[in-house]
Structures are given as C-alpha cells and as structure tokens.
C-alpha cells in the first residue's frame, strides 16, 4: 500500500510539474519547443480545442461572434496558432503541420483528459485532421466547420465563383498557375468592392468580423504558410482511414471553401449537416450551428 501511495504521489507531482512548466500565465502556455501560445479556457463539460483558420487568423472572432455558445456544454480551449493573433512567432521558423499537431497535443495534455473534441474552422481543418490522424485515441470527435482539406480545390472554387459573379473568364491551367489566377480573380472582386461576398452575402457580417480581426496581432504564420508544401497537399483521400467520429458542418453558400468541398470527405464515421449560409455559420446561423454540435456530442 505504501508503494502504491508513493507511486500515485509521484504521478501527481509529475503531472503538476509538467503543467507548471507549460503554463506561463492564465492566458499563455509554452509549447514543447518553447513557443508562447495564447490560450483561453472557458465553459463546462468535455474539453474541446478550437483550431482557427487563416492561415494566420486567430480564435478571437470565433469566440466573440457566437462560438462561445459551445461553452454551454463544452469546456472550450481557444488558442492562437504560433505566429498568429496573440501568440508569439516561432524562433525556429517551424510552422509545419506536424509542429501544429504537436502544439494541439501540448494543449490536449493540459486538459487532463485522455479524449477531447476538436472544432476546426476553415484552414484549421488541415492541422485538426492531421491531429486526428496521428492521435485518434485522443479524439472523442472531430467537428469540421466550413473546413478545407485541400486548399487548391478551395481556391479553384473561389476563382470559379468570381467568374460566375462577374462574367470573367480567368482560367486555371495547372497547379503552378493557380495562385496567379487566384490573385487576378481577387483583383476583380476588389475592384467591385465586394470582397465580403467570399465569406457572406451579408456585408454587415463581414464588417463585424473585420472590426474584430483588424486589431493588432501577429501575422508571421500567414506570411509563411503557402510556402510550406504540406499545406497545399490533398488530404481528402486520407479521410477514409481516419475512424474517429466526425461531424461536417457546411454552408450552401460557402464560396470561400466551396459549397461542394465536403463531398470529397469519406470518413467512415461521418455525419454531415448542411446549413443554408456562408462561411461564418457560427455567427449567422448560430442556433443551427450550436444544435448540430450539441446533437453530435450527446
């Protein structure tokens, strides 16, 4: 019995010591490669890590514009990815998907729970998917909200939307020419002063989003991401091998990701919720979004 108590005490000490090493203060953690990440914890229930999009966005707008509704039934872990938002840039310049997966695992270990939910929005689908692929034993459920798993496909969808909207004829000859075509298409949209339509048909929604996102923050990851080939890969074919429970939430008018992008996903244990709306469903269709998540986590 003494040995058992001693062993238990040692385990508790190790966990607490690890936690104290990783926690810098109430809103900052230190990753295993010594990068300071912003982290806010709020809510009640099973831990849920929110993985924001961008690349290089932050968790603030999701939390402030209705994502915090999930706190009614989940303990939300809002973090800003390295080189994004309120987090610090990585001095080792490591912004790879594998490193982001390690960051998520660092946060998962801080929850004290063996299993967590992941909610991933937009570009955040890629690091969240890679986490579920590597650590399926730690994923109670993966929620892909307006998420991409193949950036090239989503960018082509954006070019096609702009062509249809303005009668332009910008073509994409191959992958090498995609970014040139994408920027040409975006230029046309800017000239019409209708950039907001990529995210929502409602200009006021995007103005509210911008009022939050225009705050001073770190953009380092945003400047590096598209120079990292692993973010441009097609991960949709790997979905059939990931056997964790998955909820896909998609918008009929999500022109940022592509309204049919989700049809490329083939998770064995997948539910799909199609909501009439765009890329900011957590705000514009908050009840539908929250009810879909709450139904999934029952």
Give an account of the 3D structure:
The chain has 298 residues and is an alpha/beta fold. The protein has a single domain (33-150, 199-296), classed as Rossmann fold (3-Layer(aba) Sandwich), CATH 3.40.50.1820. Helices cover 39% and strands 17% of the residues. The protein contains 10 helices and 9 strands. It has a 9-stranded mixed sheet, sandwiched between helices. Strand 4, helix 2 and strand 5 form a beta-alpha-beta unit. Helix 3 packs across helix 4 and helix 5 (151-166) packs across helix 6 (175-191). It starts with a helix and ends with a helix. Mean pLDDT is 92; it is low at 1-21.
How large is the radius of gyration?
A: 20 Å
In the predicted model, the low-confidence regions spanning at least 5 consecutive residues are 1-21
CATH architecture: 3-Layer(aba) Sandwich
Output the number of helix runs.
Answer: 10
Order of H and E elements: HEEEEHEHEHEHHHHEEHH
Shape: globular
Helices and strands in order, then pairings?
Elements: H1 2-22, E1 23-25, E2 28-30, E3 36-43, E4 46-51, H2 60-64, E5 74-79, H3 97-111, E6 116-121, H4 125-134, E7 139-145, H5 151-166, H6 175-191, H7 203-213, H8 220-224, E8 246-251, E9 270-275, H9 281-284, H10 286-296
Parallel strand pairs: 4-5, 4-6, 6-7, 7-8, 8-9
Antiparallel strand pairs: 1-2, 2-3, 3-5
Helix pairs in contact: 3-4, 5-6
């Amino acid at each position: 019995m003494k040995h058992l108590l001693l062993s238990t005490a040692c385990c508790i000490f190790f966990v607490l010591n690890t936690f104290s090493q990783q926690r810098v203060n109430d809103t900052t953690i230190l990753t295993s490669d010594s990068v300071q990440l912003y982290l806010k914890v709020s809510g009640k229930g099973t831990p849920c890590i929110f993985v924001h999009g961008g690349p290089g966005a932050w968790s603030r707008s999701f939390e402030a514009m209705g994502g915090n509704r999930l706190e009614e039934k989940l303990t939300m872990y809002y973090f800003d990815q390295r080189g994004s938002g309120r987090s610090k840039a990585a001095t080792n310049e490591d912004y790879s998907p594998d490193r982001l997966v390690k960051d998520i695992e660092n946060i998962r270990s801080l929850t004290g729970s063996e299993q967590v939910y992941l909610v991933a929005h937009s570009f955040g689908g890629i690091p969240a998917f890679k986490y579920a692929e590597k650590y399926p034993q730690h994923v109670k459920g993966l929620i892909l909200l307006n998420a991409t798993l193949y950036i090239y496909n989503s960018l082509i969808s954006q070019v096609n939307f702009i062509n249809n909207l303005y009668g332009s004829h910008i073509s994409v000859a191959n992958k090498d020419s995609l970014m040139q075509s994408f920027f040409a298409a975006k230029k046309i949209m800017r000239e019409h002063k209708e950039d907001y339509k990529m995210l929502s048909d409602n200009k006021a929604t995007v103005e509210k989003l911008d009022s939050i996102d225009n705050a001073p923050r770190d953009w380092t990851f945003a400047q590096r991401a598209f120079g990292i080939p692993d973010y441009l890969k097609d991960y949709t074919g790997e979905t059939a091998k990931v056997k964790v429970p998955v909820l896909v939430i998609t918008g009929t008018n999500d022109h940022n990701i592509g309204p049919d992008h989700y049809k490329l996903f083939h998770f064995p244990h997948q539910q799909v919720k199609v909501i009439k709306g765009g890329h900011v469903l957590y705000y514009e269709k908050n009840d539908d979004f929250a009810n879909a998540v709450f139904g999934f986590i029952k």
